[in-house]
Design brief:
Helices cover 40% and strands 19% of the residues. By secondary structure, it is α/β, with parallel strands linked by helices. Bound molecules: 3-isopropylmalic acid (IPM) and magnesium ion.
């Protein structure tokens, strides 16, 4: 198995190092895993003048899967937009055609107290958000900032982006979401803003068409504002949620807090053949970078997803997830999930604990 490892910026290097420890265990037991490192984000810009250097893209294209840390940092905020770290991340998603982004939000029972919601609201929570990842307003043309002349003859700058989805883009991500729902609780909620946006109207229609192929799945729809409210009112009503790129970005951050910390949420971004890129959903956290205090569990759980989806090895995925469950049950806590009585550990100690649990 060829793995491209792109740690990126900020805490990216620290958390990826813990995930690599987990991979090293599997390797020492005989798994054939080849890892090659590349730069992405600000690290790509610093080293090679490009947030997605050609060498990193080639590495990712040649690999079976990509493990990514995080990108971004305040030192890059003044760069021209195409040179910013985020552009590197968006480009690699697009270049690899990773249109289906799976973001599970799961509450480990021991972390109920770390959630900002009441324990009874979140206990037993197990949601899968399927976010479309290569379309929408993130990539739509035209986009830009330009000077335009207004109705009274005055000129001023306007900023604009285009929210756009083709039927085929909606259809393929809908199929992924329905297939996942079939393997879970057979409930799918499609989230859009069809009361206002034509783009969402089409989304809703196409999802309803795809539903005919999955008669066992109960399909519901919600406007995104209502979905945001329902996610904190009664999150356990959801099984699988499918939504567009922008709404999915927002709702998945929101859902992460139900599970205690954004530091717990892994993700898989898949193409049509289950080649994937695996990354925590959180960012590069520049404020705590280099201090060995970040939570590596989202990245370690992303490796579990890699085994489940790209390598079709559910046993190894379960083993990694069970190791994480065990360290949580044993009381190991990084700062973000720490509550009174927990054993506060560093990022690297958490990685070691998971390795020991394996
Ligand atoms: C995410 C992030 C990215 C996104 C940023 C860093 C470009 O927020 O993966 O959710 O908006 O997709
Ligand atoms: Mg986000």
């Amino acid at each position: 198995m060829k793995l491209a490892v792109l740690p990126g910026d900020g805490i990216g290097t620290e958390i990826v190092a813990q995930a690599v420890k987990v991979l090293a265990v599997l390797k020492s037991e005989g798994a054939s895993i080849e890892m090659e490192y590349g730069n992405i984000g600000g690290a790509g810009y610093d080293a090679e003048g490009d947030p997605l250097p050609e060498s990193s893209l080639k590495l990712a294209q040649a690999a079976d899967a990509v493990l990514l840390g995080a990108v971004g940092g305040p030192q890059y905020d003044q760069l021209d937009r195409p040179l910013r770290p985020e552009r590197g991340l968006l480009r690699i998603r697009k270049e690899l055609n990773l249109f289906a982004n799976l973001r599970p939000a799961l509450l480990y029972p021991e972390l109920a107290g770390a959630s900002s919601l009441k324990p009874e609201v979140v206990s037993g929570l197990d949601i899968m958000i399927v976010r479309e990842l290569t379309g929408d307003v993130y990539f739509g043309q035209p986009r830009g900032v330009e000077v335009r002349v207004g109705p009274n003859g005055q000129s001023e700058r306007v900023g604009f982006n285009t929210m756009i989805y083709s039927e085929s883009e909606v259809r393929r991500v809908a199929h992924v979401a329905f297939a996942i729902a079939m393997k879970r609780g057979k409930k799918l909620c499609s989230v859009e803003k069809a009361n206002v946006l034509e783009c969402s109207e089409l989304w809703k229609e196409v999802v309803a068409e795809v539903a005919q192929d999955y008669p066992e799945v109960e399909l519901s729809t919600l406007y995104v504002d209502n979905a945001a409210m329902q996610l904190v009112r009664n999150p356990k009503q959801f099984d699988v949620i499918v939504t567009g790129n922008l709404f999915g970005d927002i709702l998945s951050d929101q859902a992460s807090m139900l599970s205690g910390s954004i530091g717990m949420l892994p993700s898989a971004s898949l193409d049509a053949n289950n080649k994937g890129m695996y990354e925590p959903i959180h960012g590069s956290a520049p404020d705590i970078a280099g201090r060995d205090i970040a939570n590596p569990l989202a990245t370690i759980l992303s490796v579990a997803m890699m085994y489940r989806y790209t390598f079709a090895d559910a046993a190894t995925a379960d083993r990694i997830e069970n190791a994480v469950k065990k360290v949580i049950a044993q009381g190991y806590r990084t700062g973000d999930i720490w509550t009174e009585g927990g054993n506060k550990v560093s990022c690297s100690a958490m990685g070691d604990a998971v390795v020991a649990a394996m």
